[in-house]
Amino acid sequence: LDAPIFGRLPDDSWVQWTPTIQLEPNGPAHNAPPSQRSSSTLADGGGSTVISTNERTKCANVPRSPFNDDTCILSTESTACAPFEVIGEVPVDLNATNIEAIYDLTGRLVYAIRGLGLDLIEQHVCSGSKTRWEYEVGTCDSPSSLGNNTRKAIVSALSSGTVPPDYFKDIKVRARDCDASDITLENLNIKIQTGAYCVKQVHPDDWNVYDFTVWASRHPGGSYNIQKWATDTFQSTYETNGWQLDYPFKASPDRPEVQEHPMNRWETNGKRPNVEFIGTFGSTVAYRDLPNDLKLQEVSDYFGATAEPVTGGGVVVCGSAGEVSNDPFKRQVFDFDSNEERTTRDDVMDNQKHVVWSEIALNGEDQLRQRMAWALCQIVTTVPSNIDARFQTEIYTEYYDICVKHAFGNYRNLLKEASYSPLMAEHLSYLKSKSHEYVYRTENRRIARADENFAREVMQLFTIGLFSLNDDGTPVLDNETNKPLETYTNEDIESFSRAWTGFERVGVRGNYEEVRGGSENNRLDPMRIDPSWRDAFPKPDLDGGFVGDRYALCVDLPDRSFLKAGAKYRLLGGSPLPQLTSDPSQFAQDSKYPYLLHLELNSTNSDLYKALDADTEGQYAMTVTLQSDIECFGVECKLDTIRTV
Predict the structure, then answer these.
(1) Which of 374, 338, 357, 388 is closest to 523 using CA atoms?
(2) Is-contact 332 28, C-beta < 8 A?
(3) N or C: which terminus of the chain has fewer CB atoms within 10 Å of its end residue's CB?
(4) Which segments of 29-100 are extended strands (E)?
């Protein structure tokens, strides 16, 4: 054994070592009164625990959200820690050096893929779809024999834009611009001479960069049978930690141990969830667009994407409702699924969530609430088989607590909190859904649609259903067809799907059950919205108007609305960036941006300063809502709006 199990103290008493984890209270009970909502929040966000464990634990400060604002306090303790944040706009160049660095830092099998074969007529250059072409300096050996029209169309497409590209070029050629006799399977792997370059057609996925970890883990021969395709240089030196995979479409004498693989294996396995697309080799992606499993703090530090810690002004620390401490002396013991060694069998881990629910649902004193919660969670439901966290317990009980919390409340509030749940976003696949504009701009003009799954289910299963109903529950009939009147159309689904773009998990933290595969793999706390992924265009509603019609626009607000009754201010501590909204990270640089972003209030004459100032005991309110209009002073009178003060 690594350590003794029993110990004898100086007073002759004996102690026994136990692996039981001691969790700290970090939030109110669900039924706590408003005056006590912040009393159990960890005073330093768990920073002292991070220090005492030599950073083996994470900061337990819960990211601020619309659902825990009343648990937040301002901490001025020297050990206070802020939630882990990254600078999403930091560029990541997908070159050989960085791909190998990501491999080394994460242990994830990240490679560029090359050597895929062409074997479908739909991949022909004259099909009208996107085709990919590789440039090599020199003269083609055995160039393809093509008709004049086909050759002219290809050369014209290759000549547009940047010539030559660093590695490859994507083009489109219309069938009507080609010679019909050239559109055959024999003319899939075309080589053509253009100037000093031999340009050859390759598979449209060649030069794409993927995370192959899941595919490799599911390979019947083990991950080595995928990794042995890897090379680390353009000269094809084969090493398992290289930056690219050479797909064995055809047998190679250089690799007799690698069997030939037909392309249907790639067509079957080369998509999610087996592989995760990252970008194209040689391109630059934003750090925010990396898959969550790659966003370890080590990767964030490597690319300079880790936000600077707050220094001075205090740290806002928040808790989470229901995050109460455990009692390690109780008889019933549950295990945690974590990066550390787990001793409990898989079937027991899988059953823990059911045991916890059964004990509370059957034996709890609040039986009416429990029955209402059960009914609500049968409507607004998630399915564990759709979530990549089968053996965890706390994330499922936390989701069920949403139904418990709102059992006697407003159904809209239940839907809102469930919609922010990372489990719901994973179950109904709108996690990381991005607008078409963002994908088109950042992914080489790729055509994409927002994920429609949740937009459909929130109407069909969670709210209005498929057909309009009369007050007695009978279907409303169409006056012309005498058939039940449908409540929405496919166009409505497509429109509403754009409203569910931008959702992303928040950073992992301490004091809860979590397998930390990436810095943004938190499946417990409410999600955040990344504004860069949001669809900014209007969304028609079901009543002939638009979503948000009844809300005032910024242009509708009165002059100097920040001084009017109802203006709301949220305490940020030492951070100059807003919370629950978003500004570019560079806005935090006071020396670079004027007072329009960070207004310095006059402490003597400004009524706004007096409204926001600390009370007689030196305590600042976490939120301040102006009860009446106040007068402007000095530069305040020249401004239309402000961001932070």
Answers:
(1) 388
(2) no
(3) N
(4) 73-75, 91-93
More confident residue, 14 or 423: 423
- Helices 490-497 + 453-460 axis angle, to 10: 120
Name residue, tokens 């250059």. 125
Measured between alpha carbons, how far is 200 from 545 in angstroms, rounded to an integer? 51
CA distances to 31, 283, 372 from 376, in Å:
19, 46, 6
Residue 500 vs residues 385, 419, 520, 530: alpha-carbon distances, Å: 22, 9, 19, 11
**Under 8 Å CB-to-CB from 451, ≥6 apart: which residues?**
429, 430, 433, 497, 500
CB atoms within 10 A of CB 275: 22
Task: Please give the Cα distance from 9 to 503 (Å, whole number).
Answer: 53
Contacts 24+ apart (CB under 8 A), 555-558: 557/641
> How confident is residue 579, by pLDDT bands cut at 50, 70 and 90?
confident
Asked if residues 47 and 81 have their Cβ atoms less than 8 Å apart, the reply is yes
Segment 59-63 shows an average pLDDT of 94
- Beta-strand pair 197-202/244-246: unpaired
- Please tell me the distance from the alpha carbon of residue 208 to that of residue 202, in angstroms, as a whole number: 12
Task: Yes or no: say if 123 and 309 are a contact pair by the CB < 8 Å rule.
Answer: no
467 and 399 Cβ atoms separated by less than 8 Å: no
Which amino acid is it at 299?
Answer: V
Rg of the chain over all Cα atoms, to the nearest angstrom: 29
Q: How far apart are CA 197 and CA 187, in angstroms?
A: 19
Alpha carbons 420 and 413: distance in angstroms, whole number: 11
CB-CB contact of 130 with 170 (8 Å): yes
What's the one-letter identity of residue 47?
A: G
Q: Write the Ramachandran bin of 515: left for phi over 0, alpha for psi from -120 to 50, otherwise beta.
A: beta
Euclidean distance between CA atoms 365 and 320, whole angstroms: 23
Instruction: Label the pairing between strands 110-114 and 244-246.
Output: parallel
Grouping H, G, I as helix, E, B as strand and the rest as coil, residue 317 is: strand
Q: Which pLDDT score, from 0 to 100, does residue 237 have?
A: 44
Place of tokens 């005991």: 617
- Count Cβ atoms within 10 A of the Cβ of residue 606 and give its class: 0-12 exposed, 13-18 middle, 19 or more buried: buried
- What is the pTM assigned to this prediction? 0.86
Apex CA 66: angle with CA 63 and CA 72, to 5°? 55
One-letter amino acid for residue 420 of the chain: Y
Give the pLDDT of residue 241. 58
Structure tokens at 414: 């239940």
Query: Using CA atoms, how far apart are residues 367 and 84, in angstroms rounded to an integer?
Result: 39
| Least reliable range by pLDDT among 194-198, 372-376, 542-546, 577-581 | 577-581
Plot region of 45 (φ>0 → left; ψ -120 to 50 → alpha; else → beta): left
* Two structure tokens written together for 105: 């830092």
162/135 Cα distance (integer angstroms): 12
Taking a C-beta distance cutoff of 8 angstroms, is the pair 232, 100 a contact? yes
pLDDT tens digits along 323-365: 988 887 777 778 887 776 667 888 888 899 999 999 999 999 9
Alpha-carbon gap, residue 485 to 283, rounded angstroms: 49
Six token digits for residue 199: 């340009």
Is-contact 68 318, C-beta < 8 A?
A: yes
Q: Return the closest-CA partner of residue 42 out of 57, 69, 60, 21.
A: 60
Confidence of residue 518 (pLDDT cuts 50, 70, 90): low
* Cis peptide upstream of residue 164 (ω within 30 degrees of 0): yes
Q: Report the C-alpha gap between 464 and 496 in whole angstroms.
A: 14
Structure tokens at 231: 């090379």
- Contact by Cβ (8 Å): 155, 125: no
CA distance 353 to 340: 20
